[in-house]
Amino acid sequence: MKNLIDAAMGRTEPDMILKKCRIVNVFTGEIENGDIAVKDGDICGIGEYCGENEIDLTGQYVLPGLIDAHMHIESSMVTPQEYARAAVPKGVTTVMADPHEIANVCGEAGLKFMRKCAEGLPLDINFMLPSCVPAAPTEHSGAVLSAVDTARLAPDFYGIGEMMNYPGIVNADAKTLGKLVKPIIDGHAPLLSGNALDAYLCAGIKTDHECGNVEEMLEKLGKGMYILMRDGTLSRDVARLVGGLTARNMRRCMFCTDDLFVGAVRDRGSISACVRKAISLGIEPVDAITMATLNAAECYRMYNKGAIAPSYTADLVVSEDLELTKITRVYKNGILAAKNGKALFETKPAYDESVLNTVHLSEINESFFTFTPKTNTFSAIEMIPESIITNKVTVSMADNLSKVCVIERHHNMGTKGFGFVTNYGIKNGAIATSVGHDSHNIAVIGDNDRDMAAAVNALGKTGGIAVTSGGEVKEFLPLEIAGLMSLKPADEVEKIHKRLDQAAKAVGVTDGIDPFLSLSFLPLPVIPEIRVTDGGLFDVGEFAFIDV
Questions:
Q1: Which residues lie closer than 8 Å to 112 by C-beta, 6 or more apart?
Q2: Domain boundary among 270, 305, 340
């Protein structure tokens, strides 16, 4: 503190001075001209300063480091180290990360692995303790974290991760309530309304990233929630929600990515892309930047982040424009971490035997997928482009359907569930993945049993994503870490993923449907309206299996 005060008063010299900046003041909404002085990783002064280490930023904007208010690093398909190398050059300096994907596969070993990977990075990864492992009582995951486990692990985590078991909260289930052992609790309550929403909020849950429309957002804002406007690989909610923003409620809103592939981070950015989209839809640039910085910091009680002011952490983004299309420098704790789109830090490869070879499944043949509905018409899953929400529809075998199967892969239990999907469009092929939110059992979809068997067998013990046609593997991305993340560098993962996407298009997957994320979310039984797990077809509204 004394060092900051002395540097602010000019009695000692700052470590660094960013000169002639156009400073984005998220407190007043104004752009101010001046210098930013930094000492010991914190901002010590705004105004006119001089010293030995001066950096001339004439004409460039300086804004606080961007904050991703809710995300899963596992969905990037790379390690935390590789994620940091992609995200920091795009202006992200803090993420609120929920590692419930790897926890559902590897339990505490997975949590330990993620926290170890995050050490020493120029990216603050605030890990939230997963609250739903498994996501629902009906699920067969690779691990279980009980209320007792949660209480024991809680001191090592920033808060409690998204509480997806809203039926457990609304029904005041003691085991579910017993997991709410930290003051900061993330929510997950798609379409929850009225008395049920009131009951959910009585548990102390304050955030939600699952709003699908303005009406839902406004009710939740009116009841005191913070709304995390999501723009990920599959779910693009910013455009749906931005029309509900007003001068009064905007300070309760922020941005998150939830699930975003590393290729998208490297290409368009993560939170910077949210800022650009909001601006393009009519939000004032400084307001959009405030949502991406100060709002998120205050929501998560990080009172020394999210603004450029004395005593605040010197997490700073330098950009030639307010739309953040030309980020030239990113400082983390006052140290230059990225310049002109390139990370300036090195990382060590991640390797831990406890999170490898996590697919425990015997080789299968095409007869494994023999399944015939009991009636001529039956319930099926309708996919919605750019959304993880599905519709429950009634179909017959004469319709253009794709068969989906979810297979338990953690303990080789032999359980499997079938369903049929409209709008996916696959022809003469199949796609299989070990990414199946959130229990991460094997999910495979196709139009013939031969290709479905070939796709599942291609995953081997490591897991990954496979596209097959004519009984042959056309492309395969191994995801060695828990069947979720690759050991490869981000650029290699991106190259293979592009080939996977081309292979998926070659077998006719519908435009506007992400062939892999759409499939990976089909097993998640806490997202409306209808899902499929290794237990069968599941009606989320009724929270019960459907007999087909």
A1: none
A2: 305
